[in-house]
């Protein structure tokens, strides 16, 4: 169908998608406790998620130190990716019965741009700033929020994108799938974190289903919007500055697929 659209218009499709989704993201609901709120998790579970997340964050810091020595001009790209993650994830849609909120993640896109371990560090920093200055999330739940949004969002998003590109999917389609599934995986993980800590003598999976269903009315459409946003940004970057992506994650991109068909 895109072949019937003039090339001059096709080249602006990703930009139009990005602008449209940004406008949707920038009309937030009033801010309430975001991510998993302070005090929701028992101490033992909070410590467990801290320990797991620390492994990924420390690894990411080491990778950043090495890559900044190897790749000139990497820091501005890290700054842009970090800003995207912070801004996209800062707009909450309250989900009253879960002790959390629905919101876009930004980490699937961050992982595509700079790699999943680096995106994990950027996501952790975004979560820390939100807890410090915006009272979104909390310090006791920082580890759990890092695991669900920064780690799962990054690795699922990157893995899906890499798989779709290996299957010769267009850049936009691969980006859309990465944003969509990375977003939904984040909230499945959040539901598991909450249900595993709070189910008490009841059924873990029954509580998981209840929490997941509570997220569904807001998170299902938000996942679709994040997919559109992620696909649009990746396609736009690949059209305008493909070398940025090739230098960071050479195996995920095939230069021959940058086409006169609008980046597909």
Structure write-up:
The radius of gyration is 18 Å and the shape is globular. A two-stranded antiparallel ribbon has the order 1-2. It contains ten helices and two strands, in the order H-H-H-H-E-E-H-H-H-H-H-H. Helix 4 packs antiparallel against helix 5 and helix 5 packs across helix 6. With 264 residues, it is mainly α.
Structural class: mainly alpha
Query: How many alpha or pi helices?
Result: 10
**Unreliable runs:** 1-34, 256-264
Q: How would you sum up the global shape?
A: globular
Tell me the number of strands.
2
Radius of gyration: 18 Å
Fold blueprint:
Layout: H1 7-10, H2 13-25, H3 43-70, H4 74-89, E1 93-95, E2 100-102, H5 107-114, H6 116-133, H7 142-166, H8 171-198, H9 204-240, H10 242-248
Antiparallel strand pairs: 1-2
Helix pairs in contact: 2-9, 3-6, 3-7, 4-5, 4-6, 5-6, 5-7, 5-8, 5-9, 6-7, 7-8, 8-9, 9-10
Short synopsis of the structure:
With 264 residues, this protein is mostly helical. 70% of the residues lie in helices and 2% in strands.
Properties at a glance:
globular, 70% helix, 264 residues, mainly alpha, two-stranded antiparallel sheet, 2% strand, 10 helices, disordered C terminus
């Amino acid at each position: 169908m895109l072949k019937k659209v003039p090339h001059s218009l096709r080249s602006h499709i990703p930009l139009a998608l990005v602008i449209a989704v940004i406008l949707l993201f920038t009309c937030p609901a009033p801010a309430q406790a975001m991510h998993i709120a302070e005090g929701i998790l028992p101490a033992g579970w909070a410590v467990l998620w801290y320990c797991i997340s620390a492994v990924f964050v420390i690894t990411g810091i080491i990778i950043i130190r090495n890559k900044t020595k190897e790749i000139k001009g990497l820091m501005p790209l890290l700054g842009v990716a970090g800003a995207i993650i912070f801004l996209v994830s800062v707009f909450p849609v309250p989900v009253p019965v879960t002790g959390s909120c629905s919101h876009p993640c930004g980490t699937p896109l961050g992982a595509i741009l700079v790699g999943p371990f680096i995106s994990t560090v950027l996501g952790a920093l975004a979560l820390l700033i939100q807890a410090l200055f915006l009272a979104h999330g909390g310090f006791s739940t920082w580890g759990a929020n890092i695991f669900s949004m920064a780690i799962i969002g990054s690795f699922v998003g990157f893995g899906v994108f890499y798989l779709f590109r290996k299957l010769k999917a267009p850049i936009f389609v691969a980006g859309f799938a990465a944003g969509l599934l990375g977003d939904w995986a984040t909230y499945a993980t959040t539901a598991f974190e909450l249900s595993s800590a709070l189910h008490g003598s009841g059924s873990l999976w029954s509580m998981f289903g209840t929490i997941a269903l509570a997220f569904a009315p807001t998170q299902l459409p938000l996942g679709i919007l994040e997919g559109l946003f992620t696909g649009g940004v990746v396609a736009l970057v690949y059209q305008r500055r493909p070398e940025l992506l090739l230098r960071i994650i050479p195996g995920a991109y095939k230069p021959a697929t940058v086409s006169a068909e609008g980046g597909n």
